[in-house]
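re: ur msg from earlier - yeah i can do the NDP complex, just paste it... oh wait u already did. ok heres what im feeding in:
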Amino acid sequence: MTKPFEGQVAVVTGGSSGIGLATVRLLLEQGAKVAFCARGEGRLADVAAVLERDFGADRILWQAFSVLDADAVNAFAAAVQARFGTCDLLVNNAGQGRVSTFETTSDDHWRAEYDLKLFSQINPTRAFLPMLKASNGAIVAVNSLLAYQPEKHMVCTASARAGVQSLLKSLSIEFAPHVRVNSVLIGLIGSGQWTRRFAERPDQSVSREVWYADLARNKGIPLGRLGDASEAAAAIAFLGSRAASYITGAQLEVSGGLSRHI
Ligand code: NDP
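and the outut:
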């Protein structure tokens, strides 16, 4: 049977950890050539060495830079074009959330958060758009359930993420019928972000298993656990694949049922 991404080229931002790394691996398993980036060169190189061993160096391209550096993103797009000749799927995944209430969020924090959330979409989208148009490709944005269900302890992240959903809807209309634009809304996925928060837990004697189980219970996640990065990757790959050829401007929740809106 032909693999869903056989002969296609995918780009994943933030591909060295968590959801991005799981997506890179899944797309490689499903036949794509994959280019990915992140800021930290050491972790990228470690990850790339494993992927090159498993899938072959000819199918992988990676560069270290921030997606907020528009020149670097453009250079990456040029490298993808030179190496692979096309781009069929762009996964805008790079980023992280900010934990702060309104009273603990400074103006600089607000600006930095809006900059990250919006330009982590804008810069790669602008750089890869010509290739995506030429291939009738797709964009999948990794966003958060906070866009629709804000929480007071992540006030600026939630606000910026709502803006991202508006941007994506506009793009889905502007880029149609050539490029599909969809998003996944993540609830709690046990990735690098939660590993960092676990490491900073007040009671260091609490095990990872117990801490994650308490977190799921306290959040009231109906499926009773945090998601795995591979489960987010599966949703991303679906929206980016030809199986989703009539889906654009949509969002798919990957939250274990955490959303309360219908
Ligand atoms: P991880 O921390 O595991 O992975 C984040 C990845 O993005 C890393 O590869 C990181 O590498 C990279 N990255 C971060 N900032 C930049 C940047 N400016 N430029 C390029 N690369 C960058 O986190 P997740 O897998 O959880 O996060 C993936 C996405 O999902 C993020 O956008 C996050 O906000 C979102 N999300 C995750 C949730 C969760 O519960 N896990 C909940 C809601 C949303 P490096 O640091 O080296 O740059």
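cool cool. The two ends are 37 Å apart (CA to CA). ping me if u need the other ligands too
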